[in-house]
Amino acid sequence: MKEFLIALLSAVTLQNILFTRGLGANPIFSISRRSYKTSALFCGFMAYFMLSLTALSFWVSPLLENLHTAFSSYVLRPIVYLLILTIIFAVTCFVLSKLFSDFFSENEKTITSACFNCAVFGTVLLTLSKPYSFMQSLGYASGACIGFILALIIVSEGQRRIELSPVPKSFKGLPVSLIYIGLISLAVYGLVGHQLPA
Amino acid sequence: MQENRNLPNDAKTDTFFGSRINRASVLRISRRLTVSVGNLFFKNPILVGGIILSPVISAVTTFRSGVAISIAVIIICIPSIIISELSSKYAPFWVSAIIGALVSALMSVPAYKMISPLSPDIFDNIGIYFPIIMLSSFSSAFTHNRKRRIFIWSVTDVVCAVCGFAFFAILIGSIREILAYGTFNGKLLGIEFKMSGVAMPFFGFILVGFILAIVQKIKNSTVFFKNLIKRRKEVQ
Amino acid sequence: MNTSRIQKKAPPHIRTSRTAPIILLDVIISILPLYFMAYIYYGLRVIVLGAIGALTCFLLNLIASALSSQKVNIYNIAPIVTGLLIPLALPAAIDYSIVICACAFSILVVEMPFGGCGFNFFNPAAAGIAFAAFCWPTSVFTYTEPLVKLPVFGKIVASSYSPAYYLKLGAVPKLDLVDLLTGEFVGPMGTSCVFALIAGFIFLLVRKVINWRTVLSYFVAVIAMFALFPRIHSDSISSVLLELCSGSVIFGGIFMVSEPVTAPKRNIPKYIYGFLIGIFTVLFRYYGGFEQGVAFAVLILNIFSPLLDLYSEKVIYYSRRVRIARKPKSSE
Predict the structure, then answer these.
(1) Within chain B, which residues score under 50 in pLDDT?
(2) What is the nearest CA distance from C99 to chain B, expressed in angstroms?
(3) Which among C121, C309, C310 is the top mutation candidate for probing chain A, defined by the most A β-carbons within 10 Å of its own β-carbon?
(4) What is the pLDDT at residue A23?
(5) How far apart (Å, rounded) are the C-alpha atoms in residues C185 and A58?
(6) Are B216 and B205 in contact (CB under 8 A)?
(7) How many domains does chain B contain in total?
(8) Backbone angles phi, psi at C189, to 5 degrees
(9) Residue C210 lies in a domain
(10) Cα B77 to Cα A197, B106, B109, distances in angstroms
(11) Which of B197, B209, B213 sits opposite C135 (nearest CB)?
């Protein structure tokens, strides 16, 4: 339990998926503009895909343990994790389209973008590149999810403030949001210190 | 058709040596081409939607890694988007997303082969951001808002957008390498003033934001680009 | 109707003698004792550093407002305050180029994209110091001995570390109480002399420039955290004093925490804001990557200050409604 909590806390603060690693900027920008219901749905599905992918990949990764070349760690392993993710996604979509077809057809694009984005895949790659136990991996994945939701809240609050400020015309839209996230990242790096993330 | 609105009246009858190509079609093709080339800057993934930002922010800290990420994006993303767009006509959206992901997984092997000769430790620099390109949500930007889907224009749009991404990734990599390490492509430039914090992700966000702001300033100010935007609205 | 006595004037219709330049001049006056003490310890270089910082910020602010098509106001002295604050938290031996870059960052990245001076979301001085700490970690945290006059031009080799560095390693720096309070120890240029800082603080309080709520809650939180979780196991008063005086804790509390643009506007959030900054400062000092933590704590809480205002307004509104509903209705 303790290792779960420590991994969770480090994933939320020190290795925050957006502010420290830079993953997941696109989902945050597209989701922060939409309604609360879509954001909640997106975050829920993202948590589901992240945790299920981490759990399943953890059981598969001992089979790939003997391969240590660059090709295996940068191409083979990610392809295996991607295949697992597509299987999870295909099964989920198939079940939802048969059982809850109205809900699924309304939210098809949200569910697809919740699955196929950098945050989910990046978390799994990060978790499984470290010598974590099963509970620690799950803790890290949950922490990444909580960190993403926190980042989403902070960025939407920031965008609300930005809309009320006299931003210069050339900075309106994406540039000023990126600079805002960069300054928050600068503040969060005070905890990490002067090291590039591994 | 919308595109024929602003063509001169005699263009429809003027033919080239009696062939089927008339001036109207040449004008239409050239206008569409300028829109595609304009997409190099304006519909660029990192410039408009913030797509594929994570490798650019965290991994592109040198010129070589910018080149590596650009090659990876060109090889992985172009076939994957084209095939997922084609498949979206015949299959539901979620199936085309799966097909796109599988194609990008397949294309990562040739991408790896192309990138490894660049430098012996290129993958230590790029790290996990190379596999992440496989799952970038590129396809959503291109399949969502298309009203007309003539295949050849989708291909030119994708190719132009990816080339624009490559240009900006290499530019950002060069700037960060010069500021952070005082080198360019590994060669020392003799600059003693170095800012080591430039290699960190927070500066990546800020630099991309500033480059975007400069591009938006150019877009808002010159007459040429204003006409380009007008043409783009007619075509879409 | 007799219209000759109606006067037409443009708003604002309520004017006082206290304008923004006067408030900012008060802040500059409160910073001057720090520069005076730094001049006594390190020589003329200190004044040149301050002047370069102020000039850089002022000129860049003019250029930035011209580029973003805003009115260029040469009487706007807010960037000068930022330019004077940033060098005070840096060593006196620092290169001029580092000060110029930190000031450029604070104006061009923290103020210009969000609308200019007065519309910044983050404290520009804190962001400039944080940026300098990341880009040049060795230069920003190595110092020279006090009372050794430094040359104005030329590169200076700094090799001493401040007491905050030794505290982070777990050692106990040996310092006399008088030395600690007068600032005669290795440390940042303007943050060591407690007497000068207190003088500036009293001046700002008397002139009603800063709000005592944020500063009081900040110091309560910081002193409580240092007393309850000491890093050195000696007599608690001396450990608290050592921790307080050995860095930019007091300097940050007076000049960075109470900045009116980024701090909350309501009273109750001001207490919460100051308290949380105090807690985060101590956490950053103990567990963060650098020996100083105020700048990062201020940046993090700047994200939440409008949220604190918003929720406190909602709490006040609903409590007022409950109070009105509970009041017995007077009989007609």
Answers:
(1) 1-3, 145, 147
(2) 12
(3) C121
(4) 86
(5) 54
(6) no
(7) 1
(8) -55, -50
(9) yes
(10) 26, 11, 13
(11) B197
* Residue B148 structural domain: 40-235
- Name the domain count of chain A: 1
Cα torsion C134, C137, C140, C145 to 10°: value is: 160
pLDDT of residue A194: 65
Please, which chains are in contact with A (at least 3 CB pairs closer than 8 A)? B, C
Q: Give the list of residues 6+ apart from residue C154 with CB closer than 8 angstroms, or none.
A: none
Provide the terminal-to-terminal Cα distance of chain A, rounded to the nearest Å. Answer: 25
| Chain B residues closer than 8 Å to A42 by CB | none
The DSSP result for A44-87, as a single string, is HHHHHHHHHHHHHHHHHGGGGTT--SHHIIIIIHHHHHHHHHHH
**Mutation target vs B (from A26, A96, A117, A129; most B CBs, 10 A cutoff):** A26
Question: Which tokens go with B208?
Answer: 């991309």
3-class SS of residue B234: helix
Which residue in the set B97, B112, B206 is minimally distant from A179, CB to CB?
B206
| Cβ separation A170–B210 shorter than 8 A | no
Instruction: Determine the structural domain holding residue A103 and report its residue range.
Output: 2-191
Q: Does residue A171 lie in a domain region?
A: yes
**Would you state the pLDDT for residue A198?**
46
A106 touches B at CB < 8 Å:
no
Residue A75 lies in a domain: yes
Parent domain of C156:
20-321
Q: Specify the CATH number for the domain of residue C100.
A: 1.10.3430
Radius of gyration of chain B from Cα atoms? 20
Q: Do B196 and C109 touch (CB under 8 A)?
A: no
d(C-alpha C61, C-alpha C79), whole Å: 7
The tokens for A146 are 């909580």
Give the count of domains, chain C.
1
Which stretches in chain C have pLDDT values below 50? 332
**CB proximity under 8 Å: B 90-129 to A:** 92-94, 97-98, 101-102, 105, 108-109, 112, 116, 123, 127-128
Tell me which chain C residues have a C-beta less than 8 angstroms from the C-beta of A158: 121, 303
